[in-house]
Amino acid sequence: MSGNAIGVLFRVVTWGESHGPAIGAIIDGCPPRLALAETDIQQELDRRSPGKLPSASPRKEQDRVEILSGVFEGKTTGTPISLLIRNRDADGAAYDGLRDLFRPGHGDITYQAKYGIRDHRGGGRASGRETAGRVAGGAVARKVIGQAGITVSARTLELGGIAARNLSPAAAVTSPLRCPDPEAEARMLQRLQEARIAGDTLGGIVEIVVRGCPPGLGEPVFSKIDADLAGALMGIGTVKGVEIGAGFAASKMTGSACNDPIGPEGFRTNHAGGILAGITNGSEIVVRAACKPIPSIARPQETIDLQGRPAVVTIGGRHDVSVIPRIIPVCEAMVCIVLADHLLRQRAIDR
Amino acid sequence: MSGNAIGVLFRVVTWGESHGPAIGAIIDGCPPRLALAETDIQQELDRRSPGKLPSASPRKEQDRVEILSGVFEGKTTGTPISLLIRNRDADGAAYDGLRDLFRPGHGDITYQAKYGIRDHRGGGRASGRETAGRVAGGAVARKVIGQAGITVSARTLELGGIAARNLSPAAAVTSPLRCPDPEAEARMLQRLQEARIAGDTLGGIVEIVVRGCPPGLGEPVFSKIDADLAGALMGIGTVKGVEIGAGFAASKMTGSACNDPIGPEGFRTNHAGGILAGITNGSEIVVRAACKPIPSIARPQETIDLQGRPAVVTIGGRHDVSVIPRIIPVCEAMVCIVLADHLLRQRAIDR
Amino acid sequence: MSGNAIGVLFRVVTWGESHGPAIGAIIDGCPPRLALAETDIQQELDRRSPGKLPSASPRKEQDRVEILSGVFEGKTTGTPISLLIRNRDADGAAYDGLRDLFRPGHGDITYQAKYGIRDHRGGGRASGRETAGRVAGGAVARKVIGQAGITVSARTLELGGIAARNLSPAAAVTSPLRCPDPEAEARMLQRLQEARIAGDTLGGIVEIVVRGCPPGLGEPVFSKIDADLAGALMGIGTVKGVEIGAGFAASKMTGSACNDPIGPEGFRTNHAGGILAGITNGSEIVVRAACKPIPSIARPQETIDLQGRPAVVTIGGRHDVSVIPRIIPVCEAMVCIVLADHLLRQRAIDR
Amino acid sequence: MSGNAIGVLFRVVTWGESHGPAIGAIIDGCPPRLALAETDIQQELDRRSPGKLPSASPRKEQDRVEILSGVFEGKTTGTPISLLIRNRDADGAAYDGLRDLFRPGHGDITYQAKYGIRDHRGGGRASGRETAGRVAGGAVARKVIGQAGITVSARTLELGGIAARNLSPAAAVTSPLRCPDPEAEARMLQRLQEARIAGDTLGGIVEIVVRGCPPGLGEPVFSKIDADLAGALMGIGTVKGVEIGAGFAASKMTGSACNDPIGPEGFRTNHAGGILAGITNGSEIVVRAACKPIPSIARPQETIDLQGRPAVVTIGGRHDVSVIPRIIPVCEAMVCIVLADHLLRQRAIDR
Fold first, then answer.
1. Which end of chain B is less packed: N or C, by CB atoms within 10 Å?
2. Distance (Å, rounded) from C-alpha C142 to C-alpha C140?
């Protein structure tokens, strides 16, 4: 019940610090007899890897996942799947200067307040590196929901204030920023370059779309599927806002415009984003997550030290200019995990 | 673990349908020796009551809460607090025409898909009436966090597309729409009147502010306090979007503008909305929830019946024109519950 | 997660104190479309009622259960089932003399230590009266597992040191002490009479047998079905020991004698009590619970008061001489709840 | 919520199969700033190691634990502690003959029934080897409760039907069978030797004693500390019975004999085993667990194969003759985990 696990029946626990020996995840509750190989997980991790992404730092993480349990002769056994990723290329000593300083926008100061101790190296547990464990868990979840015909894909809707307008789904899959609007993407790339030169960072908006989801997933009242999706996405460090379907725009609509008329062939519109009263309605599920700019900027910043004295912190090392598009597989992973959990929960009562 | 409970240590379960014999809540995990009377809960329920609110229907709910357990001689005992509210003024027969029709924008069709059965009267379990149980639970939570000096208050930031601009906190407490900008509120009231005449409904945006919250509340990774707040608010039927601090606007900012500089006296700005890496930082917590327009409009709507045949549904009865401001104590309740839970969780490790 | 709920998918919460306004239970996670009426629950409560049981006190509880939610037109809807039982014939003033005294063998002193406050009337939350809520929840569970062909029945194996020897299952159903051995039962009845005259009380052993349970229920490692059964039964106030199958006797056997040989038609013996490695094997599940004598004896006892001073306590009122046979439907209820929960959990992965 | 985790606030997840690459545990919810080194855990694992125990097989496991997260500069950080133990000396091929056969007394047949697949090598997940993860988790729990002055120690009360009579606590710590009665132990050793020669195995009874536990730990009704202890111990594969304090003997006592009189200096007797109404009372907690004989005997046994055809299985390899005394640190670990969890839960409300 501590904050390192998510899900009721399909449950993912992540563990590990940015500069400790390793990070990993346990998937507990995966149905048996599902084909699963390390490559299934590795390919999702590779999507999160900085590689040659225009927004990414040159640090090479080379994450290699190892399945330690729960799979026998290529199939899941129903027992916990333990995944291990050793940390490499992680020089903790580079963070010595930050041992007693709190970086603005980071969890340094709040972890210290909460625990009275913190692993200051690379943000410790609060590092974005932790999301590799989520992506690994999401890869398993994706296989579970894939068996039921459900697919999850995300794309960049906005970056640095530049919005995609002409949405071409095909473009998002292959483009460097996973942006469905090639023209907007060109400007986003330029914006990234400007920010990098200015020693600054950028945020953006990611949209996740779920296709093939059957109606009926989600629990009433407190574990609505939109509630769980919102919680799962807001639990990604960079996310400061989440909306479903028409989202914030719905607050400006009238009921007659916002309601989705129902016809024999299904819903005529999808302002609901595929969810009514917390339960899927068979339409596409559409969720958007607003990501703040990465707080690690290459400029001196005002802060305090462990003793509360004023200080200036300058963050060295090379950092990403934006979480986009690396955050995309993380968003997808969280959505996959929530869906897998609700799929199993529905099966328990669905006779 | 079903969807009718929230919280780990401070746990609220709600139960009941709109037109069943009663609704209620159980609060399990409330600390002992807390002064608690029915009036503490009743006054929160009264805030949710339609009363003479300009946006509300004339239905008189007259909710009276009864404490059935967990309180002895005016103090909590540490055992479950069971709260009962009998349903009154609830004429289920008025819904006979809706037995086989799915109202657009409502959970009728998804509950049918999920369970293969539904109590069609007034939306059954999916009715906004269920939130009375949350408000009752929130009243207890408010007392728990109040002992730690934490206060929670919400206000109307936008209604029907009209935004409050000049925020006067004092105004929000007493004004009919809980709006901090009297000039905007006048226009909101007019807008409500127009919508009522047009047989339509309106949405809006609520902002919840938490003051006095100590740093250190929230769990890492999956039960971050912002994740739990987002899940709790998105779990309110009307909410389609949630944002913390700068929220969606943060996605358009640069890191140098978005980071909150830290000084010896605290944070210089509060774009983080009081939460860093999922843990409170001692600043005000600021959360906004986007509410869709109420789906029960007084106009004929296209739909299907239980057999999938096209139909037109006209919703009779008198309904609210907007969830605002009645949703305000519900939003506050959810925030109080999340905070009470995290306060207790922090105490468990805080020695 | 507080101690007033049990189950993951089929979840029962009980609430209420012995001499408060009411007690009750919520069943969350019951599958939809199950026929359920108040009489289904009432008949189980009646089995727990003292009535004319030879071991019971003359207090007439007249428990009447009311279904407040979760059932529509005679069928469960999948939403929480709230059950209410008003307390009657409960004169709290009779306990005034016990306000500052701790009764030996009761939870008075531990509740005071834990919470710093307690409802002293009739033991408050720790009263055996709380088990009415369990029996009510168990009645719903019994219907859930009954649909899968599973039956649960318990009987008295021992009372006051007198053991049933010739086990006639039919006798147990109708006999006053639910004892399968009429000859032993006659001696038990005499023993009860002697104890009543002596102002003393007796314990005994209950055996619960589950028939028709399919193989495959139970989770590995920490939520084994035997672990959950043991926890559920040991959670009954009176129970001080639990054993499965051969139980304590297994500790004296050799492996060659204890192992149950397997043949094409099934297991040749059942020392395992129907459970192997925490998972049902298709044989009858056999569990025994050892009940201590009721601590409320009609004799003066040494104790201390709230200030720690020596005192003598004499418990007035009329009390049962033994929890047997009233505990039998409680034991059955706990077993039904555990089985219903595991049945649903298995369905989630069983495709 | 799957069956591989235990605890609410102090939570232990174990993972791993007997002959997979590794086994391990995650401890989530450990308080921060606790001194913790690999040696703390290793020494508990060594107690479980067969070493030169008279009841053990010659297989050398050489378990070496590695801390992968949650500890920084020798202290816990409050984040999940991931522990890894690589499997060595594990020749899976030796089990090829058992791929399609179900060993009597083992979980082979029930895992197959539950999951439709199983890792047959060494029992897979159902192997006693999994308990190494528990012992590792228990080592951390022991440090948590140790800070509060609580100690947990277990001893052999009976083996192969031979009971210890003259209990000398000091003897149990150092003796080969952890038996407090040297004379009985000599006979137990002889009994073990006889069983080994006969190709048979033995069971026994372990008693766990908790000292220094403050009153007030345990939750009412369903998460009573005795319920949680019983569930935790019954969840050890070998355990078929659990009793607290007087246990099964209490069922033969009268109330006047069983009640523990209370004096200013504490309880005069301890038939309750330190627990009243599910909450600790400050006395020693006394729990006993009945262990069945190990099912792997060196004799041919009747069984069936995967197709349900009659077969004879002969288990090769070298196996322990009794789980005693290797089960002792496992029993202690489970008790430590339950106590650590309840200690933290109590802190949450104990102001």
1. C
2. 5
**Chain C contact present for D109, CB below 8 A:** yes
Smallest Cα–Cα separation from A284: which of A211, A208, A207, A335?
A211
Task: Give the per-residue pLDDT at B52.
Answer: 65
**Residue B311 host element (H or E):** strand B310-313
* Chain C contact present for B24, CB below 8 A: yes
DSSP H or E stretch at residue B303: strand B301-304
Q: A61 in helix, strand or coil?
A: coil
C-beta atoms of A351 and C31 within 8 A: yes
Q: Do B221 and A246 touch (CB under 8 A)?
A: no
Give the dihedral of Cα atoms A217, A220, A223, A225; nearest 10 deg: 40
What's the rounded Cα separation, in Å, for the pair D162 and D204?
8
List of chains touching D (3+ CB pairs within 8 A) = A, B, C
* pLDDT (0 to 100) of residue C174: 78
Say which of A3, A222, A256 has its CB closest to residue B222. A3
Give the gap in angstroms from C-alpha C73 to the nearest C-alpha of chain D.
Answer: 32
DSSP H/E element including A132: helix A131-147
Whether the predicted pLDDT of D178 surpasses 70: yes
Q: Would you call A342 an interface residue with chain D, using a CB distance cutoff of 8 Å?
A: no
Which of C9, C110, C267 is the best substitution to test chain D (most D C-beta atoms within 10 A)? C110
d(CA D237, CA D227) in angstroms, rounded, equals 17
- Give the three-class secondary structure for B76: strand
Give chain A's length.
Answer: 351
Q: What is the mean pLDDT of chain B?
A: 94
pLDDT score for A290: 98
Rounded Cα gap, residues A201 and A191, in angstroms:
10
- Lookup result for tokens 């932790």: A130
Q: Which of A24, A43, A131 is nearest to A81 (CA)?
A: A24
Q: What is the mean pLDDT of residues B19-38?
A: 97
Instruction: State mean pLDDT over D32-37.
Output: 98
Confidence of residue D60 (pLDDT cuts 50, 70, 90): low
Cβ distance of B31 and D349 shorter than 8 Å: yes
Return the higher-pLDDT residue of A268 and A172.
Answer: A268
How close A4 gets to chain D, by Cα (Å)? 7
* Pairs of CB atoms within 8 A across C/D: 374
Q: Are B158 and B204 in contact (CB under 8 A)?
A: yes
Beta partners for A35? A75
Reported as a single tens digit per residue, the pLDDT across B137-192 is 999 999 999 999 999 999 999 999 999 998 877 767 778 999 999 999 999 999 99
A190 alpha carbon, distance to own chain's centre:
25
Spatial CA neighbour of D20 closest among C187, C227, A81: A81
Convert the pLDDT of each residue in B86-118 to its tens digit.
998 667 788 888 999 999 999 999 999 999 999
Whether the CB of A349 is below 8 Å from some CB of chain C: the reply is yes
Alpha helices (H) in chain D, listed in sequence order: 38-48, 108-115, 131-147, 169-174, 182-197, 225-234, 255-258, 327-349
Q: Given the structure tokens 């009945």, which residue do they identify?
A: D290
Q: What is the DSSP string of D129-173?
A: GGHHHHHHHHHHHHHHHHHTT-EEEEEEEEETTEEP-S--HHHHH
Q: Two tokens at D68?
A: 């992968």
Nearest Cα of chain A lies from the Cα of C343 at a distance, in angstroms, of 8
> In Å, how far are A4, A299, C76 from C6, measured between CA atoms?
23, 54, 20
CA distance C85 to chain B (A): 10
Task: Assess contact for A25 and A16: CB atoms under 8 A.
Answer: no
Average pLDDT over residues A191-203: 97
What's the pLDDT at A350?
A: 86
CA distance D151 to chain A (A): 25
pLDDT tens column, C322-344: 999 999 999 999 999 999 999 99
